[in-house]
């Protein structure tokens, strides 16, 4: 019997632990950090690039890549970084897993494999993983207070699709200044951030027992194909993989 997979989802971050799923060449907005838990996996940076065997890899945002899992159990961390922090370089043979500070992360991943990892511990482990793998990409500062207020407004009005003009007015900025600051602070355009929220809604619907088509409609996608394209562009696999996962998510920061 195949080992079950687990998905932990937050705004702009996702942790997936479970059997690897071979992908087609793809790129996405998020930085991706991948670890082979029991054995190496293969990766290549494009359809014509050579395959490289590795135990750990870091993929920069928008870096095309493809995985050949070979039956490996993998852990993936996806992170959408603020623009000011997008200094990530692709590293096919990364060494973060050998650092002493990574040991608590590995313990959390092992707990996820046993089905006993809670969401808060997963969030702490994800942050520690980032500290090990991408220390230069982390900022000691929180969001600009105006962006923090905008995010609070979005969270307190579920089911709405606010415009940049509306949110800019809420925080007393011009629309152009707000949209620039929002992208700089969150790493995403407003429309991309709202897509993450819709992915949350789709994941929640699947976790609640909806079929994929119903989940797509409940999340505000035009159809299942639209949600599938969005999910695949974010995670590199089709959303039907959700049916094989234990899902935990946090819809509010």
Commentary on this structure:
With 253 residues, this protein is of the alpha+beta class. It folds into 2 domains: 5-137, Jelly Rolls; 145-234, Arc Repressor Mutant, subunit A. 37% of the residues lie in helices and 18% in strands. The protein has helices at residues 103-113, 119-133, 145-155, 164-170, 175-186, 190-207, 212-218, 224-235, and strands spanning 5-10, 13-19, 31-36, 41-44, 52-54, 56-59, 66-68, 73-79, 245-249. The strands form 2 sheets. It has a 6-stranded mixed beta sheet with strand order 6-3-8-2-1-9, sandwiched between helices. A 3-stranded antiparallel beta sheet has the order 5-4-7, with no helix packed on it. The longest helix has 18 residues, at 190-207. The protein starts with a strand and ends with a strand.
Short description:
It contains 8 helices and 9 strands. By secondary structure, the chain is α+β, with helices and mostly antiparallel strands.
Count of β-strands: 9
Helix content: 25-40%
Q: Quick check: average pLDDT? A: 87
Q: How many domain modules?
A: 2
What does the main sheet amount to?
A: 6 strands, mixed
Structural class: alpha+beta
Strand content: 15-25%
N-to-C order of helices and strands: EEEEEEEEHHHHHHHHE
Tell me, what is the CATH class of the largest domain? Answer: Mainly Beta
Q: Strands of the biggest beta sheet: in what spatial order? A: 6-3-8-2-1-9
Instruction: Calculate Rg over CA atoms.
Output: 18 Å
Label the overall shape: globular
Low-confidence stretches: none
The number of distinct helices, counting runs of at least 4 residues, comes to 8
| Name given to the CATH homologous superfamily of the largest domain | Jelly Rolls
């Amino acid at each position: 019997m195949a080992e079950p997979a687990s998905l932990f989802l937050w705004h702009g971050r996702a942790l997936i632990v479970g059997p690897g799923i071979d992908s087609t060449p793809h790129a996405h907005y998020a930085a991706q950090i991948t670890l082979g838990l029991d054995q190496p996996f293969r990766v290549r940076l494009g359809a014509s690039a050579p395959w490289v065997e590795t135990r750990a890899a870091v993929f920069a945002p928008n870096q095309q890549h493809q995985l050949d899992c070979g039956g490996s159990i993998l852990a993936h961390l996806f992170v959408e970084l603020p623009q000011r922090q997008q200094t990530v370089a692709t590293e096919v043979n990364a060494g973060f897993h050998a650092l002493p500070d990574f040991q608590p992360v590995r313990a959390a991943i092992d707990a996820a494999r046993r089905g006993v990892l809670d969401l808060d511990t997963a969030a702490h482990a994800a942050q520690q993983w980032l500290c090990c793998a991408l220390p230069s990409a982390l900022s000691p500062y929180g969001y600009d207070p105006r962006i923090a207020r905008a995010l609070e407004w979005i969270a307190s009005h579920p089911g709405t699709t606010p415009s940049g003009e509306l949110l800019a007015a809420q925080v007393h900025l011009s629309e152009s200044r707000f949209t620039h600051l929002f992208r700089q602070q969150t790493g995403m355009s407003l429309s991309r951030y709202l897509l993450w929220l819709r992915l949350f809604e789709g994941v929640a619907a699947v976790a609640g027992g909806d079929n994929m088509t119903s989940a797509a409609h409940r999340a505000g996608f035009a159809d299942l194909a639209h949600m599938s394209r969005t999910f695949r562009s974010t995670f590199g696999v089709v959303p039907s993989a959700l049916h094989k996962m234990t899902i935990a998510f946090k819809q509010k920061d």
